[in-house]
Amino acid sequence: MTTVRLPLFPLNSVLFPGLVLPLNVFEERYRAMMRELLKTPEEEPRRFAVVAIRDGHEVAPSAPGMPDPTALPDRGPAAGFGTDPAKSFHGVGCVADAATIRERPDGTFEVLATGTTRVRVRSVDASGAFLTAELEELPEDPGDEAGALAEGVLRAFRQYQKRLAGARERSLSSGADLPDEPSVVSYLVAAAMMLDTPTKQRLLQAPDTASRLRDELKLLRSETAIIRNLPSLPASDLTRGRTSLN
């Protein structure tokens, strides 16, 4: 079992391997994290782990009524996540490699990172300026019939795209833009579908690629049928997830 300790960045969204993550970092705990990551030489990966929040606030209350009208100010690395922050997070996350960390004149940061490897959270440490976690790297097992399932998922995904774009609109992506490697397909589709956070989390922590693709095939067929039967509903209204403040 390979474990690693990395800074922990909780979000109201799920990061998948291979997907790009832009962040607007303004809270002091995450600014401290970015300052620490900048100490890593540019030729080495500047890694942190992203986990989806199960119960808690992505942005901690910074003043009375901000962002929750009933909230009191909260401080520290675990602000907004209770006395045992590990319980506030889903147990599987994704390592992010920050290709760009740019500090603005006001001390906030503009960050562009890419998901790399799935990890399981073993423990969370709130003793420093920002959260860190002991993480177990998870292998990507292809499972049975992943190749054939990926082909079926791509076909269903194209139909889903067409329904989202509308009968008179151009598809959101041409076939040439889509990959054919099963694990890449599984993560791309999981990220691109308009699903709530618990469903995306379920896809992230699937035991193997084939299981993820099977789940996605069912979801694509179901979501496409819903869109077909609700043609007047704008596609943007179909998402059930919250928008990340980062």
TrEMBL record:
Ranges where the Lon N-terminal domain occurs: 6-224
Pfam families: LON_substr_bdg
UniProt name for this protein: LON peptidase substrate-binding domain-containing protein
Species this protein is from: Streptomyces cylindrosporus
